[in-house]
Amino acid sequence: MSCVFMCTELLWGARLLLMTSAPALTHDLKPDIDLPLGQVGPGAPLTIGLVSYLNTLPLISGLEKIENVRLAPTVPAEQVGLLETGQVDLALCSVVDLVRSPVPLCVVPVGMLGCQGPTLTVRLFSRRPLEQLRTVYCDSDSHTSVRLIRVLFRELHGVELETPVFNPRQDFDVSQADAFLLIGDKVMNNTLPLEFQTHQMDLGEAWFQLTGLPFVFATWMCRADLSDDQAQRVQRAAVLLDRTRRRNAHRLNQLAVREGRRFKWDSASMARVYLEELLRFEFTPQAEQAMTRFLEFSEGFSGSLPLFDWKR
Q1: Is 113 left (phi over 0), alpha (psi -120 to 50) or beta?
Q2: Distance CA 253, CA 175 (A)
Q3: CA–CA gap between residue 58 and residue 54 (Å, rounded)
Q4: Which of 93, 4, 89 has its CA nearest to residue 56?
Q5: pLDDT computed for residue 146 by the predictor
Q6: How far apart are CA 279 and CA 296, in angstroms?
Q7: pLDDT of amino acid 219
Q8: Which long-range contacts (CB under 8 A, 24 or more apart) does 270-276 make?
Q9: Rounded distance, CA 1 to CA 206, Å?
């Protein structure tokens, strides 16, 4: 099925509206299984930057109950700034920030937010045929998705797309645009005028059709210029994050059912499909290959990804 019109029946059981706020970014994640995640040790609290969407809960649910851990929730595009200014030990960053940041960064390979095919929540809506588009207004919450849509239009349509950004939490006159790129839960719980539903692209599916690879939207990162003490803090945080992801991998159904409504997903069954079948959370060798390939397409990156050795 074409990436332009994929899963119309699946998606449009939910509603879409551009100017509605996403849920507040808090770390009140309310885990319902109180399994021990371990102690982080004495000293100053570990500081972790994170994103609070339904799709990040498999990576972070339970962290708010760990003593001596301080969480810093923001939208994805703001995570890298927390690392650059030294406010956090590690953060869940958009993958393009690895090469765009003025501060050298490393991937901490203990979890990611990705997909292998459709993602549902990174989606282009257009009232014109996609091959006619030259400008798409892009959700300011994500750096990677903006770069990805440029890559896809260059490779699929031979178009160097203009991608001005807009803040989805502020009023915006939709009449001035032909197309919008939205990310996150707002794709599922908001509504654009019907004319924008005519032509669509799921960016995860389009990437998979182009390359046969999964796509990595975000992964844990730390600064590369760490002192020995800072590296030890990142290592402790990495162990905690790996344990958290492994624990939550066995409770995706529970997270979808319980938290889907809080994030304004109308369909619990769709939330379950989203977390259990469509998304990927483990940073595998194939994910590393896919991330490298995307950065080659997008940023002219060459070589190997800088990986933090968290098992040392």
Answers
A1: beta
A2: 39
A3: 8
A4: 93
A5: 95
A6: 23
A7: 98
A8: 270/10, 270/13, 270/14, 270/120, 270/188, 271/54, 273/10, 274/54, 274/55, 274/120, 274/121, 275/54, 275/55, 275/57, 275/58, 276/252
A9: 11
- Tell me the one-letter amino acid at 25: L
Which residue ranges make up each domain of the chain? 44-116+215-299, 118-211
Locate 36 and state its tokens.
């021990």
Give Cα 242 to chain centroid, integer Å: 17
Query: How far is residue 303 CA from its own chain's centroid?
Result: 24
> Residue 43's pLDDT band (boundaries 50, 70, 90)?
low
Please say whether the beta carbons of 133 and 259 come within 8 A: no
Q: Would you say the CATH fold of 118-211 matches that of 44-116+215-299?
A: yes
CA distance 73 to 66: 16
Local structure of 118: helix, strand or coil: coil
Report yes or no: 232 and 101 within 8 Å, Cβ to Cβ: no
Residue identified by tokens 């624990």 is 247
Q: Which CATH topology does 44-116+215-299 take?
A: D-Maltodextrin-Binding Protein; domain 2 (3.40.190)
For the chain, how far is it from start to end, CA to CA, in angstroms? 45
Query: Dihedral (C-alpha) 163, 169, 172, 177: value to the nearest 10 degrees?
Result: 30
The model's pLDDT over 64-98, given as tens digits with 9 standing for 90+, comes to 999 999 999 998 889 999 999 999 999 999 999 99
**Pairing between strand 165-166 and 279-280?**
unpaired
Two tokens, residue 226: 């760490």
**Structure tokens of 278?**
């469509």
Q: Domain 118-211, what fold?
A: D-Maltodextrin-Binding Protein; domain 2 (3.40.190)
Helix (H, G, I), strand (E, B) or coil at 240: helix
pTM: 0.85
Q: What token pair was written down for 126?
A: 């257009």
